[in-house]
Amino acid sequence: MKIEDFRPFVPSNDYEMSKSFYEHLGFTLNWDSGEVSEIDTGFGYRFLLLPRNHNNCAHSLMLHFMVDSAQEWYDHFIAIQLAEKFEGTKVAPPELMPWGLIITHVWDPAGVLLHFAEKPNYDK
């Protein structure tokens, strides 16, 4: 027995806005059936975007991305005016968390919390 792939389902409140949001981040829309679409992060992982948000579960969902630089991702989000272009979206500057990772938090239009996290390099 082996698992060949893993793709979480991510809810949306406004399907078209959420697809646009993730494309604006720099992710790729691989396909869209109208009932579900596949979003490719560009760094080896994909997820399935749903056109609905059953029981408002988006506010309970978090996606965690390990990145080289949380600051660079934050700068990217500010440069593309992510929060200004997508209603309900919030971006928080990088912060060192008590568990040791530096994380830039982004809330997508449905309320899904995205973590863009890096391991600090204390040798810098």
Notable characteristics:
alpha/beta, 2,3-Dihydroxybiphenyl 1,2-Dioxygenase, domain 1, four-stranded mixed sheet, 3 helices, 20% helix
Q: Could you describe the 3D structure shown?
A:
- By secondary structure, this protein is an alpha/beta fold.
- It is built from three helices and eight strands.
- It has helices spanning 15-25, 70-79, 82-85; strands spanning 9-10, 28-32, 37-40, 46-49, 62-66, 90-96, 102-107, 113-118.
- The chain has a four-stranded mixed beta sheet, covered by helices on one side. Strands 5-8-7-6 form a four-stranded mixed beta sheet, covered by helices on one side.
- A hairpin with a 5-residue loop joins strand 7 and strand 8 (113-118).
